[in-house]
Design goal:
Mean pLDDT: 93
Number of domains: 2
Low-confidence stretches: none
Largest sheet: 8 strands, mixed
CATH topology of the largest domain: Rossmann fold
Distance between the termini: 49 Å
Number of helices: 17
Radius of gyration: 25 Å
Shape: elongated
CATH architecture of the largest domain: 3-Layer(aba) Sandwich
Length: 465
């Protein structure tokens, strides 16, 4: 069979007929939708050691331990560890020489009459690739976008079968696992916004590249990873917290880039509605910043990620071409203020009517999305290399018919000039740094933060020799 064209039923049948695979299914929240496929196609006795649904919280706690959140990565891991260990205790002696074991689990909240929020959940596999071998793991987080509960349950079952099939047969090629997750589905029904690989089967797999693959292959519009390169999930990071984001190419981060972020952070924290609370801060790269022609240079992406990691920054890789799409997405995960740290050179994009979609209400609809959740743009002065003057939010010249709109945004604090900035760094541009690196001109080292200098030199990034 051609693996890329297998239906959900064919995948379940293939696993059932594979005498070398045997495991447990533990599912909470939407019924036993994944296990059902293996019983439905027949031959499940060759695959299923046990199925379990511990719906009652006290029952679930008694089995897997207490948890403050039942639909969480922590609960998923507890389920996988418990079921896999139990499987080995009971069956390793009798079956361990002739098969590999796996535990599949999910913990999900689908929408219903009592639960009006968006359906979402965690799915995972813990599995061996050889008899008596060490286990490896895959975790994913999904958003279920169907309006009907029954359709969400159906989608969950399909994603689960795809994950099991991918883990069993594609573990040598993690990109293929990602590519197969939405087989028989579309992005309108399911979004996979996080994936994490761990264990000997995935030694050398870089979670940063896997986050890039999720966006590149269209499983999500954005994926996140931490400064140490570990996959992160939006809600885990952003839930009910104020957010400060800076988007850019970061090739590399310069003193100017960092000053924009730090000055915006200082002003944001001082705002009355934050009451001194530290915001979640991250830096965003879009696919258009990474694409040359039709291709994405993965090494170039990793180079930029290394630089951001050296600064301790969480990174978002996204497919958001416009600021308002990013704000709309962030507003799904927090109801606290959202701030964008930008140079004044970005203002032409904000006031360009051509970039806004008529189906979303044009420019006014787009700005409505941009400034949700008491959002604001902190604007750092930009040096105009033609006039030699500084451009700010206040003095930026907009077309005549937009002047009242510009004044409205300023008067209501949606556009805010940064009160503090460093004049000496305004002229620094990333392209000048790259040119100096290529020319072996050591002057570039004074234009970027010391941790960035160190990682560029140590890892020979951006052509540094």
């Amino acid at each position: 069979m051609n693996d890329e064209k297998l239906t959900t039923a064919q995948k379940a049948t293939r696993i059932n007929r594979d005498a070398g695979k045997y495991g447990t299914f533990a599912e909470i929240g939407a019924g036993q939708e994944v296990a059902r496929w293996f019983f439905h196609v027949g031959g499940a006795a060759g695959t299923v050691a046990k199925t379990i649904s511990a719906y009652d919280m006290q029952v679930s706690d008694a089995i897997y331990g207490p948890s403050d959140r039942y639909v969480s990565r922590r609960r998923l891991k507890a389920m996988l560890d418990h079921e896999f260990d139990l499987l080995l205790q009971r069956l390793d002696k009798s079956r361990g020489d002739k098969c590999t074991f796996f535990a599949f689990a999910n913990t999900v909240a689908t929408s219903s009459f009592s639960h009006k929020e968006e359906g979402h959940g965690w799915l995972g596999m813990k599995f061996q690739t050889q008899p008596h071998g060490e286990s490896s793991e895959i975790y994913i987080h999904v958003r279920m976008l169907d309006p009907e509960n029954v359709r969400q349950q159906e989608a969950l079952g399909i994603v689960g079968v795809n994950l099991i099939h991918g883990a069993v047969y594609f573990y040598h090629h993690p990109e293929m696992i990602i590519e197969s997750l939405l087989d028989q589905l579309t992005w309108e029904r399911v979004e996979v916004d996080m994936i994490r690989f761990a264990g000997p089967a995935f030694e050398g797999v870089d979670d940063r590249l896997m986050a890039l693959q999720l966006v590149k292959q269209g499983l999500t519009e954005a994926a996140m990873f931490t400064a140490d390169g570990k996959a992160a999930q939006w809600a885990e990071v952003l839930y009910k917290k104020p957010v400060l984001v800076q988007r850019g190419s970061f090739k590399p981060v310069t003193n100017a880039t960092l000053d924009v972020l730090e000055r915006a952070r200082a002003q944001f924290v001082s705002e009355p509605e934050l009451k001194g609370e530290a915001p979640v801060v991250f830096m965003e790269m879009t696919l258009r910043h990474l694409t040359t022609g039709d291709a994405i240079d993965h090494q170039d992406f990793l180079n930029r990620a290394e630089v951001l990691g050296a600064l301790g920054q969480t990174v978002l890789i996204s497919n958001f071409r416009r600021f308002h799409r990013l704000s709309l997405y962030l507003a799904r995960y927090t109801d606290r203020p959202i701030a964008h740290a930008v140079g004044a050179s970005k203002l032409p994009e904000i006031f360009n009517e051509a970039i806004y979609n008529d189906n979303e209400g044009g420019m006014m609809g787009g700005l409505g999305q941009l400034f949700r959740n008491r959002s604001r743009l902190y604007v750092y002065p930009s040096h105009n290399f033609q006039s030699g003057k500084a451009v700010t939010a206040q003095n930026y010249i907009v077309p005549e018919h937009l002047r009242h709109l510009h004044a409205h945004l300023l008067a209501n604090g949606l556009l805010r000039d940064l009160k503090e900035f460093t004049p000496d760094v305004q002229r620094i541009r990333s392209k000048d740094v790259l040119e100096k690196i290529a020319a072996r001109d050591a002057a570039w080292e004074k234009l970027v933060p010391p941790p960035v200098v160190e990682v560029i030199k140590r890892k020979k990034l951006f052509g540094c020799s």
